Amino acid sequence: MRPLTSDDPRTIGDHRTLVRLGAGGMGVVYLARSPGGTLAAVKVIRSEHAVDPAFRARFRREAEAAGRITGPWVVPVTGADTEAPEPWLATAFVPGPSLGEVVEGQGPLPTATVRALGSRLAEALVAVHAAGLLHRDVKPGNVLLALDGPRLIDFGIARHEGATALTATDSVIGTPGYLAPEQASAGRLGPGCDVFSLGCVLVYAATGRRPFGQGTPAGVLFRTVHEEPDLDGVPAGLLPLVEACLAKDPADRPSAQEVARSLAGGGTDWEVPGLSGVVAARSAAALALPDPEPPTAVPDPAAPRPTRRRVLTAGAAGAALLAGGGAAAWVAATRRGGTGAAPRTLPAYRIALHADLTGPGKAVGLAHERGVRLAVDDHNSRTDKDFTIALRTEDDAGDATRALQVADRITADPRVLAVIGPTGVVADRKVVSRYEKAGLAQVVVAAGSTTSEWSDDKSLCLLRPFDASLAVGLTHYLSRVRPGRQVVVIEDRADPQSSWEIMNRLPDAPADGTTYTVHTVAATARTFAPAARAAVAAGAGAVVYAGSSATRGARCATDLAAAGFTGTGLSTGPVLTPAFLRDAGKAAEGWVFAEAYTDPSALSSAEAFTAAHRERFGSSPATWAAEAYDAVGLIAQASRATSATDARRDGLTVRIFRSDYRGITRRLSFYDFHQVRYNEGIFLYRVDGGRARFLGPSASV
């Protein structure tokens, strides 16, 4: 429970808010009191999401669905307003911890308790399925533990069985690690997907581990679809049922009713060590809360509000360019002379840069440092700033041990508001956990993947789409620039996970006159010639190299050229390296790549930044410099929106996730799971004259 801030509502419908129970990118959950004095958990959706008609339709469906479900092991809905500017849903307040909290804190549950947990959650799913609905996000965080048994909560992604998803075709709804193979592959869903998720939850409760491991969502999804679960440590009496629940084919899984009957037959003692003490403490804390504060006065919307001119100073020469349009949200104001008024004493905050400045990744680290320094200087030159920013730079030299030491030093500095980095290609789980434990917002700019566990790390803010998502940009290109063609996908089994990630985001059926054919190349193959000849024989107008190796990608390009291929070759960012350009030579010409970074010298919104970079550092901005500049702007905007000065650090991550920020590279707004929306963050490059030339955002090329 956290105190209300000045920005939080004092009333939601006829409920009076008491404290915050949680917050995320989609909204805030409050503990509130109804007119009759009953405690309720009220989930409020942020207005920026509610303005989306599809999202509001989904939330409307959630409220309707949850209101129809009854049973002892589901949390009842007590009120809702789906048409409010910020729609909300109220449920009964359960003062128990989540299953995830309990297992993380004290380890696996006793076998008898796991049986009781599974039996009662299965009964909850029987009620869900009897209403013609699917939950689609059964996971430890959505299971609360009460004194008499578990409660299944959060039907935020429930839907009618067979209904059309109100999400992008390239997205997955659910939590990787607990969703079924058919969810990971965007297949048709039925009640079996919830049974699969229940099997994952039982494995977690019995062993403390997820059956398909940890790491990036794409990696977990790949293992869910293609590999067998890790069931070591699952009690022998539970193993046959768990194996049946985790069958790849939904037809081979038991129904929720069959799971409930099977588990009930062996006894269902509900005994969770230490649970009664936790529930008693949380109940006492809730009952001891003071009466709700009176509603705050609403400002007069007609009252004049101060405006801000945003101008970026172009280095020491002071050449300034007035920025126009929405892209100027982080462009600083010009330095002006004194007005005779006494200077204000402004609060001073610190942003840390965690970078590799002397190791193998020093080029990327240096680009981050230069972009961040320009942004800090530009912020401090603003005449309308309400705080100043200082930069703390720490070098880990690309060493894992030093990276942990750097994280410890940064988190120990109470003046640090947020950290940008590390700057390596992978966001390491151990480093992320250090910042998470300290409650410090970690803004990662360049990493193409992470070994962190998303559901455990609430302070990780990812400003780029991961490599696994880049193939979405190829789909846009093929449908808009090269429609009506035969597309051949060359699946390189040397990296089966990466190849699957690419193929999983390409259409598997003809669309807009375009058909897709897959040719597989073995991991041990040293040539792509057979696949290249097959592509040419099929009349391919485009070939997608589905792999991650620059060397093998270059071999694919040269073999295609040798076979007489004259169409367009395509692949994703990991392949676009100097090694690919060198090894492919002339065969690389015309190849199109989806990347996660921009070329600021080609963006009108970044002209002033590019000029300032040249003026100060004597060169054009390197890759990731402009994105690092935007990271500072995002943090600064979120800091200005944080009301309580002593809570800036604690509340900053939530403010970042709520942001809709117009940077010099692109718009930055977030999904519900740490990562920036990638529809505006994937960019296309084409090899021209031996170098990669920027084409623009994939959605608009």
pLDDT < 50 runs, ≥5 residues: 157-171, 296-340, 643-647
Q: What is the average per-residue confidence, as pLDDT, rounded to a whole number?
A: 84
CATH homologous superfamily annotation of the largest domain: Response regulator
Given the structure, what is the number of helices?
A: 21
Strand line-up across the major sheet:
21-20-22-23-24-27-28
CATH topology (fold) name of the largest domain: Rossmann fold
What percent strand?
15-25%
Largest sheet: 7 strands, mixed
Tell me about this structure.
The chain has about 700 residues and is α/β, with parallel strands linked by helices. The protein folds into four domains: about 10-55 and about 75-90, Phosphorylase Kinase, domain 1; about 100-280, Orthogonal Bundle (Transferase(Phosphotransferase), domain 1), CATH 1.10.510.10; about 310-335 and about 345-465 and about 605-670, 3-Layer(aba) Sandwich (Rossmann fold), CATH 3.40.50.2300; about 470-595 and about 685-695, Rossmann fold (3-Layer(aba) Sandwich). Helices cover about 35% and strands about 20% of the residues. It contains 21 helices and 28 strands. Strands 21-20-22-23-24-27-28 form a seven-stranded mixed beta sheet, with helices on both faces. Strands 1-2-3-4-6-5 form a six-stranded antiparallel beta sheet. The protein has a five-stranded parallel beta sheet with strand order 14-13-15-17-19, sandwiched between helices. Helix 4 runs antiparallel to helix 9 (about 255-265), helix 6 packs antiparallel against helix 8 (about 240-245) and helix 16 packs across helix 17 (about 550-560). It is globular. It starts with 10 loop residues before the first strand and ends with a strand. About 50% of the residues are buried.
